[in-house]
Specification:
Among the domains are: about 10-170, Glutaredoxin (3-Layer(aba) Sandwich); about 335-405 and about 695-720, no CATH class; about 605-685, Glutaredoxin (3-Layer(aba) Sandwich), CATH 3.40.30. It has a 5-stranded mixed beta sheet, sandwiched between helices. Strands 13, 14, 15 and 16 form a 4-stranded antiparallel beta sheet that branches. A 4-stranded mixed beta sheet has the order 18-17-19-20, with helices on one face. Strand 6 and strand 7 (about 265-270) form a beta hairpin. Helix content is about 50%, strand content about 10%. The chain has about 725 residues and is an alpha+beta fold. Helix 9 (about 215-225) runs parallel beside helix 23.
Length: about 725
């Protein structure tokens, strides 16, 4: 641990990540004029270290290297040392992560780069150990090499850094010579994803796996148009394995960051607000598409987890929970088999262990990450008990373990509130209300939106971070785009015009600050932002959807609602700005492909009017929200203001006081209808679903592993001699 006798400039910051380094012997600076001016004045290279509060390997390197007095001395003597929280400053992180990928072919966090005094990157990596090992140089050796290069090879360093910057600032994509359709590009993306798909376990690739919700969202769009059952099976297998695996918190709800293995069994344990917002939306879409209960339960559990553990007293949403507890990864979330036995007793522990794959050896550092190991029917059959009793044991067991877990030391929680990530969760909750019709989700979304507007919308501009009563840092495109999408989603869920008013105000500010008048598309930073070595657009998706894609989609929907042609034009031109690159690698641009699909749709416009408590009105509303219809645009007609504010809702009030639905699709506006069945007929049937959700053979093999068999035999012996039953 760093000694409290040391105190550097980070002690004045509000970021939990920066404060973790405030008492280290390193003379850390936050990013800003003081550090940058010092580097230029003293002609010293910059050591830039970027991470975030929930990052496990950031903590490891911090303990091993930055707490080390000898290494700190080398850092202080040779460099101006700058710490950045990537969640506070995503624009800085994006520039230097791109630079690291150019240099080394891959990136990650902690992100450690050496820069010239003019912020130009020339050398770097991710985690460095304190001493050489595992084919890695020690951090001291890296520091000496970086310092010597800058002092003795300045011309080579200059040329190298300029070459890196040219690669991360590529020229605009060439304009396409043909008008390639969304259908063509989405088909190509689906083929690329099919080639990468893991047939055995779902997901993409054969190593560690991220959830990548944008890929599955695009595949659902492809399925709803083509009715390709193989594509739906890819989505279903992946989402089922993720939900049943260790990457999902089987006790407390919410997804961890990613799976460290191909089979989704052992996660990296940090939990991020942004990931859970995107996953909740994906599972809601999957629920509409398939009507499977698991896809309803997951978003409900995510929203409950966020309400319980990630919501501030004022209603804003916190950023993340750490992977580590007291310096050890995953201990809060994992179990020794003996703990389960002590909590549940032999009989119930045996059933619970069967259900969640717990063994004496465990699957993570001799502890167990809980995962769904088999269906209840198989457990009931093997144990000779009714299935309802198995379900009762598992339900009570989960609650007992959750109660015990809540008494453990908790992982650190990063309690800063980010505008953009709150926008993602607002959108998810609004969508949750629309699909699941639970008022608490809408209320939570509205409270968070009010919080962002009250605390981070200042003088016509959006700030990014709220922490300890302070609003800081100019908002990036991600913030404007995600909050805009959240406000539009809130209007589409509630039809309250305050959300539409705020959305229009925010959209106008976003266009004025971020739009590229020359080549189209949006920059990550506004025109009033500090000058950095690059001004990126980043149209490709990464862990989050491209902010350009989020902005374009929100503008198209907002323009479609209000009739504002400027909004719609900017949405279309954003896609066109990157279409050349999209044609070269469609699967890297799933967010923009979804926008392209949205505008080529065309939309199905529905106006619903009449007495809202009438049972026929409620049935028609249920029909509109029951199935997965990504091109649906719904407006609830509530009188003159609706007609005035939504041009295409004019003249579409109730007929003879009855619940009435007006449907326009494929260039035709149909006569109004008054029943659920008539409305369904106009909308058209959804694609036929043919699913086999469980890979039974694979699960049987899992259950028949030798270790599990040995364990079950041992438990049977305990159970037999305890006098508690026959098995």
């Amino acid at each position: 641990m760093a000694s409290t006798e040391h105190r550097n400039r980070l002690s004045q910051e509000t970021s939990p990540y920066l404060l973790q380094h405030a008492h280290q012997p390193v003379d850390w600076y936050p990013w800003g004029p003081e550090a940058l001016d010092k580097a230029r004045r003293e002609d010293k290279p910059i050591f830039l270290s970027i991470g975030y509060a929930a990052c496990h390997w950031c903590h490891v390197m911090s303990r091993e290297c930055f707490d080390n007095a000898d290494l700190a001395r080398l850092m202080n003597e040779g460099f101006v040392n700058i710490k950045v929280d990537r969640e506070e400053r995503p624009e800085i992180d994006a520039i230097y992560m791109n630079a690291l990928v150019v240099m080394n072919g891959q990136g990650g966090w902690p992100l450690n780069l050496f820069l010239t005094p003019y912020q130009e990157p020339y050398m770097g990596g991710t985690y460095f150990p304190p001493v050489p090992g595992n084919h890695q140089p020690g951090f001291g050796e890296v520091l000496r090499q970086a310092g010597e290069q800058y002092r003795n090879q300045k011309e080579q360093v200059k040329n190298r850094s300029q070459g890196i910057l040219r690669k991360i600032n590529p020229p605009p994509s060439p304009k396409t010579s043909q008008d390639t359709s969304a259908r063509t590009l989405i088909d190509a993306a689906a083929r690329q994803l099919t080639e990468r798909f893991d047939e055995a376990h779902g997901g993409f690739g054969a190593g560690m796996k991220f959830p990548e919700p944008m890929l599955y969202s695009l595949l659902l769009r492809h399925w709803v148009r083509t009715e390709n059952n193989d594509v739906l099976m890819m989505v279903d297998k992946s989402l089922t394995h993720m939900a049943e695996g260790g990457m999902y918190d089987q006790l407390g709800g919410g997804f961890h960051r990613y799976s460290t293995d191909r089979e989704w069994r052992v996660p990296h344990f940090e939990k991020m607000l942004c990931d859970n917002a995107l996953m909740a939306r994906l599972y809601l879409d999957a629920y509409q598409a398939t009507r499977q209960d698991i896809y309803r339960a997951i978003p409900e559990d995510i929203f409950d987890y966020v309400a319980r553990e990630m919501t501030s007293p004022e209603g804003g949403f916190y950023t993340s929970q750490d992977a580590d507890t007291d310096g050890r990864e995953g201990t809060f979330f994992t179990w020794e088999l003996k703990e389960i036995l002590d909590l549940l007793g032999p009989r119930h522990a045996k059933v619970f262990a069967r259900a969640y794959g717990a063994t004496p050896a465990g699957n993570f550092e001799r502890r167990n990450v809980l995962r769904v190991a088999g269906p209840l029917e198989r457990i009931a059959d093997s144990e000779g008990m009714p299935i309802f009793e198995v379900g009762h044991i598992i339900k009570n067991g989960k609650q007992a373990l959750l109660d015990a877990r809540n008494k453990r030391p908790r992982p650190h929680r990063d309690e800063k509130i980010l505008a953009g990530w709150n926008g993602l969760m607002i959108s998810a909750l609004a969508r949750g209300f629309v699909v699941l019709r639970q008022e608490r989700f809408l209320q939570s979304a509205a409270t968070a939106a009010d919080f962002i507007w009250d605390h981070l919308w200042q003088d016509g501009a959006l700030l990014r971070v709220f922490k300890d009563g302070r609003a800081r840092f100019k908002g990036c495109l991600e913030d404007y785009a995600c909050v805009l999408e959240g406000l539009v989603a809130l209007f589409e869920a509630s039809f309250e015009f305050q959300w539409l008013d705020r959305a229009q105000e925010l959209a106008e500010s976003m266009i004025a600050r971020f739009w590229d008048e020359t080549d189209g598309g949006f920059y990550m930073t506004g025109n009033d932002h500090e000058t950095l070595v690059a001004r990126l657009k980043n149209p490709m998706d990464d862990a989050l959807p491209s902010a350009n894609a989020v902005a374009a989609r929100a503008l198209l929907r907002l323009g479609g609602l209000t009739g504002n042609q400027i909004f719609e034009e900017k949405g279309r031109k954003t896609v066109q700005a990157f279409q050349g690159a999209m044609e070269q690698s469609p699967a890297a641009f799933t967010g923009l492909l979804a926008v392209m699909d949205e505008w080529e749709g065309p939309p199905v416009e529905v106006v619903l009017s009449g007495p809202e408590q009438d049972k026929d009105y409620q049935k028609m509303l249920e029909t509109l929200h029951r199935d997965y219809r990504p091109h649906l645009r719904l407006v609830v007609h509530r009188g003159e203001e609706t007609a005035r504010r939504i041009p295409w809702a004019g003249g579409r009030g109730p007929v003879s006081g009855k619940p009435t639905a007006y449907v326009c699709k494929q260039g035709t506006c149909h006569p109004p209808v008054h029943s659920e069945q008539a409305l369904f007929n106009l909308l058209g049937r959804p694609p036929e679903i043919r699913l086999n959700i469980f890979d039974e053979e694979k699960k049987i093999k899992d259950m028949q592993s030798q270790e599990q068999t040995n364990f079950l035999n041992a438990m049977s012996g305990i159970f037999k001699y305890s006098g508690l039953g026959k098995k």
